[in-house]
Amino acid sequence: MLYLPYNLRRCHVFAQNLKYLRIKHGFDQQQFASKIHRSVSTISEWESGKYTPKAGILADIAHIFNVRLDDMMNIDLSKVSDAAPSTKLVELTTSEESHIHTIRQLTPDRQTKVYKFATSQLDEQNEPDEEDADDDNVIDIITGRATAAGSPINGDDQDGLATMERVSVTDIPHGTDEIVTVDGDSMEPYYPKYSQIFVHWQDTIEDGELAVVHVCDEGVTFKQIYLDDDEKKIILHSLNDKYDDREFEADEIHIIGKVLN
User: Fold this and answer.
1) Domains delineated in the chain
2) For 228, which of 79, 86, 155, 233 could close a Cys bridge (C-beta 3.0–4.6 Å)?
3) If we measure between CA atoms, which residue out of 52, 72, 53 comes closest to residue 62?
4) Rounded to an integer, what distance in angstroms lies between the CA atom of residue 233 and that of residue 10?
5) For residues 2-19, b (16+ Cβ closer than 10 Å) or e, as one string?
6) What is the pLDDT of residues 94-135, one digit of tens each?
7) How far apart are CA 152 and CA 186, in angstroms?
8) How far apart are CA 174 and CA 132, in angstroms?
9) Alpha carbons 240 and 8: distance in angstroms, whole number
10) Which ranges of 129-214 would DSSP assign to H, the alpha helix?
11) What is d(CA 50, CA 42) in angstroms, rounded to the nearest whole number?
């Protein structure tokens, strides 16, 4: 079997389809030449496969016959059902017709440049947006505030430092509501000064868990919590041995959240 080079095959397919569609729509060569504003000899050369029109004229021809240009250049339309949706072309808008008119006035090399640029734009448009694709794995979370790991600090002052940041859910523990910076050394060596802790907001805590708490009349601090239910006391324990435990009445401590890391 003889295989034609790609460009010659396209030219041959176009020539066959042009003649088929012209006859199907009831045009003789003279009538079609008048409609497309070309000479009869030009139509004859197109149908013989001698050469194909420029891109803008090809688009006009496809529009006249209400077929896709890509189909006209690559598919034997005589073998395609009239009802096949792939051979139907949506009516051009005024803007699209204007674009075609502009392209027709370009030289062939400039038409090729327009085609290549349009193709690259289409490829770029069809590429999945990495940021959008990752949206399901990204959340907005509060950051910027600090908690003491030593003497409590003023929580009201910290509220003004809060900001929202987009983070990957794979980078934080499940349930994190806020990322807080440790300001102090009382939780060393496990939580050095300026390290970050991940806090889940809740107002209760289990015995021995780590939590960020508000101490009445003092401020916010990060400690290990021990509960003395009999005495109704709460003990704030520092992981750094140089700090003593501190004991408070239960109503003097407000639990802000549990530390997850």
Assistant:
1) 6-121 (1.10.260.40), 135-259 (2.10.109.10)
2) 233
3) 72
4) 88
5) eeeeeeeeebebbbbbbb
6) 777 777 778 778 787 787 777 778 777 777 777 755 555 455
7) 11
8) 22
9) 82
10) 130-133, 155-159
11) 10
Amino acid at 59: A
Decide: 36 and 18 in contact? Cβ < 8 Å.
no
Residue 129 Cα to chain centre, angstroms: 3
In angstroms, the CA 58 to CA 61 distance is: 5
What are the structure tokens assigned to 198, written together?
Answer: 């991940």
Q: What are 82's two structure tokens? A: 């009239």
Q: pTM of the predicted model, to two decimals? A: 0.47
- Give the DSSP H/E element, type plus range, for residue 126: helix 108-126
- For residue 198, the one-letter residue type is F
Start-to-end CA distance of the chain, whole Å, equals 71
Residue 16, C-beta contacts closer than 8 angstroms, at least 6 positions apart: 76, 78
Place of tokens 């401020």: 219
pLDDT in tens, 218-260: 888 899 999 988 878 999 999 999 999 989 998 899 888 999 9
Which H, E and C letters describe 190-207, residue by residue? CCCCCCEEEEEECCCCCC
CB 222 within 8 A of CB 240: no
